[in-house]
From TrEMBL:
Domain HTH marR-type positions: 16-65
InterPro entries: ArsR-like_HTH, HTH_MarR-typ, WH-like_DNA-bd_sf, WH_DNA-bd_sf
One MF annotation (Gene Ontology) recorded for this entry: DNA-binding transcription factor activity
Ranges that cross the membrane: none
Record-linked CDD domains: HTH_ARSR
Highest taxon, organism lineage: Bacteria
Any single Pfam family the record assigns to this protein: MarR_2
Designated name of the protein: Winged helix-turn-helix transcriptional regulator
Lineage: Bacteria, Bacillati, Actinomycetota, Actinomycetes, Kitasatosporales
Amino acid sequence: MDRVPEPHSGWTFVTNHSRVLAAIAEDRTTRVRDIAARCRLTERAVQKIIADLEEGGYLTHVREGRSNVYRVAPDTLLRHPADTPATVADLLSILVRHDSKRPAASAVEDHDAP
């Protein structure tokens, strides 16, 4: 979990904001550290993205003890005009289908073992 994020240059199809939002949608009690590891980002980057998502109305959180519990606003429209009338729920349903087809990390590691 303490790995340094892999460097990446160039553009990607899925933004870091959507990756973080999908990680939170999957586990509303996930920690920033775990999101960072999953999305291959720094914890500071994840904190900034969460702040952006909250400011935009896509996400809220409440403090429960020492942890945050997040709530995704599924009916919120996506930001880009070309995406209208797509909602956060629409985006997340696509990402969930994508993630369900991806092999688990342990399965990939087992496959590569001699």
